[in-house]
Automatic annotation (TrEMBL):
PANTHER family: BRIX DOMAIN CONTAINING PROTEIN, RIBOSOME PRODUCTION FACTOR 2 HOMOLOG
Family under the similarity heading: Belongs to the RPF2 family.
Spans annotated as Disordered: 281-315
Keyword vocabulary terms for this entry: Nucleus
Record protein name field: Ribosome production factor 2 homolog
A GO molecular function held by the record: rRNA binding
GO cellular component, one term: nucleolus
Cell location: Nucleus, Nucleolus
Compositional bias ranges of the Basic and acidic residues kind: 292-315
GO biological process, one term: maturation of LSU-rRNA from tricistronic rRNA transcript (SSU-rRNA, 5.8S rRNA, LSU-rRNA)
UniProt xrefs under InterPro entries: Brix (IPR007109), Rpf2 (IPR039770)
SMART domains membership: Brix
Organism: Vitis rotundifolia
Domain Brix stretches: 28-238
Length: 315
């Protein structure tokens, strides 16, 4: 029998509630870590990916010996870190003679490896190598514009898979409404060949165009690099089917006496009971009522005394 531990503190209960399945999931966090060997180029790439996703990323800088995502048994430590940090996307960097400047980008489902894409980094340029106005620097938390240019993203399986993974990595939290004023940077991915993609990061500058709609200008701010696809592993059909399940939305409770109209919109009915004026209690200390009662009493007393005086006079 497995012993199930229940949270005892309020902080632990709130953390478990955050990680519980929801109808509308929150934004996915990214785990960034490295293997036993890395190069200076790869360290700079991991640092700048962390800088671009600083609001929703966790980075480990220590060396990890037992992580080999494509080998059986080599993903145990990676899945443990995914469970510990509650991250569903990871970027793993390693460097070897056979695969120099190697990046493995993958997704997890229920904190188990879902799919993997391995790319090699070439022609890397950091943010510091670009000269631009610092006012154009993208703000933390702003939503990016992502463009995939080239027929390869629709026809080549490797590039189609890379497109899905990059989209999950870069888009951040999914929102329904977007303020165009906060759209200040763009990721441009261009398919150069069947296995090579040119990736660059640009800031968006608004210019006058003589009309209401401004003219958009792209200023390259970095980083930029060539991503060469080496290996990729698609998810199993059973795992994909399980991951693609969507929960049925709960039916909305019917609100009484409220209806929707095409012209007037939301219409409500209010029922007011008939007022019974006769049974309304009047205040006891009304000065006007006391005066009327006093005058009526005096008038009644005078009427009662008048016949007595006439009788005495007649006798």
């Amino acid at each position: 029998m497995l012993k199930i531990k229940t949270p005892k503190s309020g902080k632990a209960k709130r953390e478990i509630e955050k990680r519980a399945p929801k109808l509308v999931e929150s934004g996915k966090k990214t785990l960034i870590l490295q293997g036993t060997k890395t190069s200076n180029v790869l360290n700079a790439v991991l640092a700048e990916i962390y800088h671009l996703k600083k609001d929703s990323a966790v980075r480990y800088t220590r060396k990890n010996e037992n992580i080999r995502p494509f080998e059986s048994g080599g993903e145990t430590s990676l899945e443990f870190f995914s469970l510990k940090t509650d991250c569903s996307i990871f970027v793993f960097g390693s460097h070897s003679k056979k695969r120099p400047d190697n990046l493995v980008i993958g997704r997890t489902y229920d904190h188990h490896i879902y799919d993997l894409v391995e790319v090699g980094v070439e022609n890397f340029k950091s943010m510091e190598s670009f000269t631009y106005d610092k006012k154009l620097a993208p703000k933390v938390g702003s939503k990016p514009f992502i463009a995939f240019i080239g027929e390869g993203f629709e026809s080549v399986d490797e590039l189609k898979h890379l497109k899905e993974v990059l989209l999950e990595l870069l888009r951040g939290e999914v929102v329904e409404n977007l303020n165009l004023a906060g759209l200040d940077h763009a990721y441009i991915c261009t398919a150069v060949s069947s296995n090579r993609v040119f990736f660059t990061h640009c800031a968006m500058r608004l210019k006058k165009s003589g009309t209401i709609v401004p003219r958009m200008e792209l200023v390259e701010v970095g980083p930029s690099m060539d991503l060469v696809v080496r290996r990729h592993r698609l998810p199993n059909d059973s795992v994909r089917k399980e991951a693609m399940k969507t929960a049925k939305e709960q039916p909305k409770k019917k609100v009484k006496n409220v209806s929707q109209d095409v012209i007037q919109g939301k219409v409500g009915k209010i029922y007011v009971p008939d007022q019974q004026v006769g049974s309304v209690a009047l205040p006891n200390k009304a000065k006007g009522l006391k005066r009327e009662r006093r005058e009526a009493k005096m008038k009644h007393e005078t009427n009662d005394r008048a016949p007595k005086k006439q009788k005495e006079n007649s006798e």
